[in-house]
Inverse folding.
């Protein structure tokens, strides 16, 4: 083989691979991509378990008195939660009674599926989490994900043992929100967020009589009208609203919970079929 | 072949042969080639250097498209900042057809393949196949929407084709009347990046429905949105529909209310599809038009309209000092909400059948009846033919003038020898027949013209009628072709015959009398710092004016408008100076000919320090029906005045803050 042709062999190979990739069927490509994620998932999951173990041994280093104090605090917290749960049950009964009187349709119920966070993937384009549950727990694409501070995002991909969650700071997430105390739905969408900066989003179609500023923020919550998220979950704080030039609406900025960047556990809400 | 090669070698031994020596044919060829190259280069240079703009323009027009989006119209407020006309957002879900080129193509191929597979002899033409492909693709998107919001909508193929052919770059509305809950569902269920997008347009909103409908006016569709200072005038432009004022203030102040159009310029491929993911070359957001603050007081407007009720008529209230119109009511009217987003044929036909398009306050000219006696009184006092302390006629219920017997229509009895105040209060026709005769028709007409009753007021509204008439002998000679008779003078002196005025003119007249001046310029624009209008004084002595006002106050206390003394209309501490009127007009209705009456009332209050002036006209509907101004028109004014003074005397903490636009 001539020497020059021999030198060009790597490029030739690359060209052939690219050409082959272009002509092979989409099914094969999809399968390859899914397989890649499925094969790499155990690595992430194993790392997550290793972190859990690391935390476990870290906690083992605490003294008995510290553990006793923590246990006491936890018992108090549990007691307050028990009380809150009882109050919630009572309130749910009252809501059901009122819905019955007014013949209102009930909100869809949800089954909670708690999941550990395996990996965080924050870039300028998207902000995602990988969680340690997937098809094995019947997670579905589009399912809402929440945490104690409110909305986390929506499940965007589901694999065998893991799932990807698009955070509400991601531009690909949009939901119907309301300003607390108001009933008119407005559009919330994740903003263009820097990788290591504080996360935020934008709101549009805000009625003209809504006012908010950095010094007088308003809580933005889910409307429940969109059919995906239950109502009343915190999205963030509205820190700015400005009238648009067309005079019909305002648009504004929302500051999201800083804890979104450090989540270790989230809850996926799986809709229950209403009877 | 070998021989040829040998020949070549023999000639030069090289692949390319070079010619040496002089060959005239080759030299000639050099010249020709050089000349051609010079022509070509010159042409190229000319095109590049001198026709640059032309080519740039052609390039732009070929591969750029311009989209114009109208700006929302400005709001209309009343004098206290109450929104009378605003904009209501309409949520829509739209499909960007220009992003679906590949899908249309794929669907076209699929449909054609299916036809070929079944060996159908009647395979559609290519155009029909394209239509089918487009409808199929768009319907598939519509099915997604149907599934989310629970509707069962189908694509209108004709509308889709028209949109595709003419407005490819504009979003194609799939559903344009989304309820808030549907809009919320779509927000969460539609992908953020998709040819399907949520979109908002706007339409006019009328919080008070039919209130002041003919004054506020309405808007129609504007197909020709313009953006003067937006580049790309010569590009092929797609325009979204805007709105344009068609009547009332919407028409009169259209240029002010009209928003500034926004727009974008996009690059397109040779088939006109937007180049995928390309950002616009130019982009500008639409800007809302300027707001308009009217002089109307919506509370007074509503009070006037409620008082007129189902009757035919008009009522006008004016701020005496500034001429600002506080209420301009006309019935029958129409519900402005039926115009948003557009008026249906049935509703338009209903408005036409009810004759509700016309604003009777400015668009109808009517005989003013006895309200005109105030003008006759002023003319007589100024000319010295009426002395407030002396009777000029003895009312015995009837009088012969020329060949006709004129009766005193009021009280149907004998007023006897009355002085001016009683003559006004009881509206004694015989007194004013005598006054008119003494004044003479020419001087009476001069007085009417002095108060500008012969011409349009110039209020900021379209369609103000020009049919008002202050007649004189010359007018009758010219228009009717007959000479003036004494009976014409008698008729004119009591506001009948050929006299025609609008309710707005009579309200201005009442305001002028209240200010003791001859003209009030009405306006529908509110100016908190408006100066007091000043025109020529009427020219009455204090005694004469006192007698005139005494008569007008007597009208509402013991005279023809004493209904205003009822508790329903009584305003503590406020005396009203007014004058009733009842005019007749011969009409033919349902094949019968007879008179219908026009009930009038003009007034101002408080009589001693006037603030508000009014004119009310109610048209009788039944032939021959006794339809007096004191009974039918005065209560309308009474309701409005009561509302006015209630608002004025309301405690400070219940009053609205001064109007301010942010």
């Amino acid at each position: 083989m001539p020497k020059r042709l021999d030198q060009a062999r790597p490029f030739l190979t690359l060209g052939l691979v690219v050409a082959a990739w272009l002509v092979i069927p989409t099914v094969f490509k999809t399968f390859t991509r899914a397989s890649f994620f499925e094969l790499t998932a155990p690595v992430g999951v194993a790392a997550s378990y290793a972190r859990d173990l690391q935390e476990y041994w870290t906690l083992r280093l605490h003294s008995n008195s510290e553990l006793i104090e923590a246990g006491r605090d936890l018992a108090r917290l549990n007691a307050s939660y028990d009380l809150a749960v009882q109050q919630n049950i009572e309130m749910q009964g009252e809501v059901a009674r009122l819905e019955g009187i007014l013949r209102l349709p009930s909100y869809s119920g949800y089954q909670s599926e708690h999941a550990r966070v395996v990996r965080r993937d924050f870039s300028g384009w998207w902000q995602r989490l990988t969680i340690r549950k997937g098809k094995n727990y019947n997670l579905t694409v589009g399912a809402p994900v929440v945490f104690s501070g409110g909305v986390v995002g929506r499940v965007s991909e589901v694999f065998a043992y893991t799932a990807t969650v698009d955070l509400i700071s991601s531009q690909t997430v949009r939901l119907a929100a309301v300003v607390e105390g108001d009933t008119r739905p407005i559009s919330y969408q994740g903003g263009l967020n820097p990788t290591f900066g504080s996360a935020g989003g934008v709101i549009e179609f805000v009625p003209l009589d809504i006012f908010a500023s950095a010094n007088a923020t308003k809580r933005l919550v889910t409307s429940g009208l969109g059919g995906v998220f239950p109502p009343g979950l915190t999205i963030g704080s509205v820190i700015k609203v400005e009238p648009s030039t067309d005079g019909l609406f305002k648009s504004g900025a929302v500051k999201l919970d800083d804890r979104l960047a450090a989540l270790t556990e989230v809850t996926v809400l799986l809709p229950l079929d209403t009877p | 072949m070998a021989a040829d090669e040998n020949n070549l070698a023999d000639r030069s031994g090289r692949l390319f042969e070079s010619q040496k020596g002089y060959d005239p044919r080759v030299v000639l060829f050099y010249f020709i080639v050089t000349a051609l190259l010079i022509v070509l280069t010159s042409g190229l240079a000319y095109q590049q250097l001198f026709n640059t703009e032309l080519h740039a323009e052609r390039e732009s027009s070929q591969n750029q498209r311009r989209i114009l989006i109208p700006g929302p119209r400005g709001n209309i407020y009343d004098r206290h900042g109450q929104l009378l006309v605003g904009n209501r957002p309409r949520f829509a879900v739209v499909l960007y057809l220009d992003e679906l080129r590949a899908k249309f193509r794929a669907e076209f191929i699929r449909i054609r393949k299916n036809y070929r597979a079944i060996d159908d002899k009647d395979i559609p033409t290519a155009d029909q196949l394209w239509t089918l492909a487009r409808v199929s693709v768009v319907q598939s998107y519509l099915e997604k929407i149907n599934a989310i919001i629970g509707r069962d909508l189908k694509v209108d193929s004709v509308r889709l084709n028209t949109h595709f052919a003419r407005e490819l770059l504009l979003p194609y509305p799939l559903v344009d009347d989304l309820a808030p809950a549907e809009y919320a569902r779509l927000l969460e269920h539609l992908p953020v990046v998709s040819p399907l997008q949520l979109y908002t347009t706007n339409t006019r909103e009328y919080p008070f429905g039919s209130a002041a409908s003919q004054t506020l006016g309405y808007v129609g569709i504007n197909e020709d949105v313009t953006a003067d200072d937006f580049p790309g005038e010569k590009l092929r432009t797609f325009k979204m529909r805007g709105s344009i004022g068609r009547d009332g203030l919407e028409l009169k102040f259209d240029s002010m209310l009209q928003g500034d159009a926004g727009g974008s310029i996009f690059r397109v491929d040779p088939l006109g599809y937007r180049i995928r993911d390309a950002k616009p070359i130019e982009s500008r957001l639409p800007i809302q038009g300027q707001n308009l603050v009217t002089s109307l007081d919506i509370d007074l407007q509503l009070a006037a309209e409620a008082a007129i009720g189902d009757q035919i008529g008009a009522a006008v209230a004016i701020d005496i000092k500034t001429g600002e119109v506080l209420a301009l009511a006309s019935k029958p009217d129409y519900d402005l909400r039926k115009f948003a987003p557009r008026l249906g044929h049935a509703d338009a036909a209903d408005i036409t059948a009810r004759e509700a398009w016309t604003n009777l306050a400015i668009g109808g000219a009517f005989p003013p009846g006895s309200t005109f006696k105030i003008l006759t009184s002023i003319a007589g006092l100024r000319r010295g033919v009426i002395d407030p302390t002396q009777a000029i006629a003895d009312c015995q219920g009837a009088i012969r003038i020329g060949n006709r017997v004129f009766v005193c229509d009021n009280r149907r009895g004998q007023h006897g020898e009355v002085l001016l105040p009683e003559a006004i209060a009881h509206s004694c026709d015989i007194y004013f027949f005598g006054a008119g005769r003494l004044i003479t028709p020419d001087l009476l007409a001069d007085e009417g013209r002095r108060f500008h009753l012969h011409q349009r007021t110039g209020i900021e509204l379209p369609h103000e009628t020009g049919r008002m008439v202050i007649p004189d002998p010359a007018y009758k000679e010219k228009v009717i072709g007959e000479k003036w008779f004494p009976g014409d003078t008698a008729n004119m002196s009591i506001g009948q015959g050929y006299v025609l005025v609008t309710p707005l003119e009579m309200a201005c007249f009442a305001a002028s009398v209240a200010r003791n001046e001859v003209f009030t310029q009405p306006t529908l624009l509110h100016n908190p710092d408006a100066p007091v209008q000043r025109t020529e004084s009427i020219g009455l002595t204090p005694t004469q004016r006192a007698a005139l006002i005494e008569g007008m106050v007597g009208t509402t206390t013991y005279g023809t408008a004493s209904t205003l003394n009822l508790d329903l209309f009584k305003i503590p501490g406020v005396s009203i100076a007014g004058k009733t009127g009842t005019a007749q007009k011969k009409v033919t209705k349902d094949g019968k000919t007879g008179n219908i009456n026009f009930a009038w009332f003009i007034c101002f209050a408080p009589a001693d320090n006037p603030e508000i002036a009014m004119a009310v006209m109610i048209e009788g509907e039944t032939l021959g029906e006794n339809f007096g101004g004191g009974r039918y028109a005065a209560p309308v004014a009474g309701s409005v005045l009561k509302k006015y003074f209630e608002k004025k005397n309301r405690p400070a903490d219940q009053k609205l803050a001064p109007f301010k636009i942010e």
